[in-house]
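Hey L., structure's done. Input below.
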Amino acid sequence: RGKVSDVNLMAFYAKAHDGSPYFTELYGFGADATFNKIWVGAEWMKLDDKNPLHTSDTDAWMAGIGYGNYDQEKKGTWGVKAQYFNIGNYISLPSSAYNVSDNRNYKGWLATVEYAVLDNVGLGVYYGFAGETAGGKDYADYYRAEINYKF
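Output:
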């Protein structure tokens, strides 16, 4: 038996009210859930772009899976995650939680390891790989490490 916890659903919609000829609507949704220590999540967003120069690459999506019980408030907890991103050239995902090299015109993988070094102190290590632009140009692999303090 298992327990589903931390279920999050997100939906959003924005409409330009200034008569802009280039942007009228932005909409999308996201969902993630944890089952025991397994996390799954996805996010999708679409820009209804009226600019004739931006007729494509106006959607973005992410899907991922992870394992662990990382909680920055609890020393010794950890988690690992793998996510695939497909982000168009004229849009980005709304979440600030993703450490994607360039948050536009990017397709590729992100591997994450997080560990709570102390209560309220987390260490995160990210590795982006197999990345390319929407047009197929390769991105170099990249890595990032960060320490987060919760006050």
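The CA atoms of residues 32 and 86 lie 17 Å apart. The first strand starts at residue 4 and ends at 15.

-- N.
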